[in-house]
Amino acid sequence: MAAGLDNSGAERNMKIETERLILREFRDDDYDALREIHSDPEVFRYRSRACFDEAMTRGFLTRAQRAICEEPRNAYAFAIRLREDGLLIGECGMNRVDSGCNETYLWNSLNRRFWRQGYMTESLKALLKWGFVDLGLRRISAECDPGNLSRSHNEYGRAQGYA
Fold first, then answer.
1. Which of 88, 46, 87, 79 is nearest to 60 (CA)?
2. C-alpha distances in Å from residue 80, one per residue of 25, 90, 92, 126, 139
3. For residue 150, what pLDDT is reported?
4. β-strands 139-141, 103-110: how paired?
5. In this model, does residue 8 exceed pLDDT 80?
6. How far apart are CA 155 and CA 9, in angstroms?
7. What is the DSSP string of 99-127?
């Protein structure tokens, strides 16, 4: 796993690498691939919100890019890209939920074409490890709709031995 830090110690241009994936912060040119994910109602079936319209996707990208410069940092949003060809296949991230900056809420979405291939499990294991080890978080929480029986959701608490 690699993470970039600027001279002040604040996280900048974060990148987390796994065997098959690169999780990196969002850029403007991610819009089309992200729009495909955000416009698929099946992707958002078990999420707390419905699909995003175009303005919401653009707004998300803007907020994700602004968050990079926040101090203290309150949100981390990552594009999930295939290491092999750089294709953006999903998104994941964490938002701080307490003023002490020791707790975050985890969220994710994956393009339906890449479901059931272990990509989300792989990305979430790396994200959890990065959060606990590199950021020193005390708690990372997530919601899971009981109707969503995907393996990655069942492995949140067990990933890398973090329970």
1. 79
2. 9, 5, 7, 11, 22
3. 60
4. parallel
5. no
6. 31
7. TTS-EEEEEEEE-GGGTTSSHHHHHHHHH
Mean pLDDT across 52-81: 92
- Note the pTM of the prediction, 2 decimals: 0.83
Tokens of 87: 């294709």
Pairing of strands 103-110, 21-25: unpaired
CB 15 within 8 A of CB 7: no
HSE (CB half, 13 Å, CA atoms) of 90? 27
Q: In what order do the strands lie in the sheet with 15-17?
A: 15-17, 21-25, 75-82, 88-96, 103-110, 139-141
101-141 residue pLDDT tens: 688 999 999 999 999 999 999 999 999 999 999 988 988 98
Q: Give dist(CA 77, CA 30) in Å, integer.
A: 12
User: Distance between CA atoms of 94 and 75, rounded to whole angstroms?
Assistant: 6
